[in-house]
């Protein structure tokens, strides 16, 4: 039997981490604006990695340029789904990593959402020119890493019984308090 976690503690911890991660994202973007905007790129590793200011009016790889309303709707839907799952996943230690990943995805989504709502674009500044990878930011790191780790956790760490327990909790009509 897995050790239970107090739901109130988990919720407060999740909210505090969400706020801290969002603040970190916004601070790094503000630094990028102050230090990189209208400046030459800052080379950190020659021909490999640099800080390069970009105002991204679309999504990764430049798709959906100028379609901010689409991003707003997608973000709201994703956050609603995450909150729904977070509140219904059993509050036991073995599911803690899933909660962490959901908080990271939420913080990343809100970080970019804030930019889109306040500025009409997302500030990006990390650029791996060695592989010509799209320019990205801290919020993108949260979303990408947490999504990959969440998928790996579901595929390789959780057992069939764990997945059944989560799905049963999600299907219930009430928020999980045990």
Shape verdict: elongated
Strand portion? 5-15%
Largest sheet: 3 strands, antiparallel
Strand arrangement in the largest pleated sheet: 1-2-3
Regions with pLDDT < 50 over 5+ consecutive residues?
none
How many DSSP helices? 5
Number of strands: 3
Radius of gyration, taken over Cα atoms and rounded to an integer in Å: 18 Å
First-residue to last-residue Cα separation: 13 Å
Q: How much helicity do the residues have?
A: 55-70%
Task: List the topology elements.
Elements: H1 7-36, E1 42-45, E2 49-56, H2 68-88, H3 96-119, E3 122-127, H4 138-157, H5 160-171
Antiparallel strand pairs: 1-2, 2-3
Write up what this structure looks like.
With 178 residues, the chain is mainly α. Helix content is 60%, strand content 10%. The chain is built from five helices and three strands, in the order αββααβαα. The protein has a three-stranded antiparallel sheet with strand order 1-2-3. A hairpin with a 3-residue loop joins strand 1 (42-45) and strand 2. Helix 1 crosses helix 3 and helix 2 (68-88) packs antiparallel against helix 3 (96-119). The two termini are 13 Å apart.
Brief summary:
The protein has 178 residues and is mainly alpha-helical. The chain has five helices and three strands. β1 (42-45) and β2 (49-56) form a beta hairpin.
């Amino acid at each position: 039997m897995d050790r239970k976690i107090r739901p109130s503690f988990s919720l407060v911890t999740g909210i505090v981490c969400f706020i801290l991660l969002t603040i970190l994202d916004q601070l790094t973007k503000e630094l990028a604006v102050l230090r990189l905007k209208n400046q030459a790129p800052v080379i950190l590793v020659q021909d490999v990695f640099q800080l390069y200011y970009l105002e991204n009016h679309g999504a990764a790889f430049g798709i959906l340029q100028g379609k901010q309303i689409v991003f707003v709707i997608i973000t709201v839907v994703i956050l609603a789904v995450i909150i729904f799952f977070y509140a219904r996943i059993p509050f036991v230690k073995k599911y803690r990593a899933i909660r962490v990943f959901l908080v990271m995805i939420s913080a990343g989504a809100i970080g970019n959402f804030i930019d889109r709502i306040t500025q009409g674009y997302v500030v990006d500044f990390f650029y791996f020119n060695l592989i010509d990878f799209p320019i990205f930011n801290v919020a993108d790191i949260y979303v990408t890493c947490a999504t990959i780790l969440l998928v790996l956790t579901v595929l390789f760490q959780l057992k069939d019984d764990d997945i059944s327990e989560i799905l049963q909790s999600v299907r219930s009509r009430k928020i999980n308090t045990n």
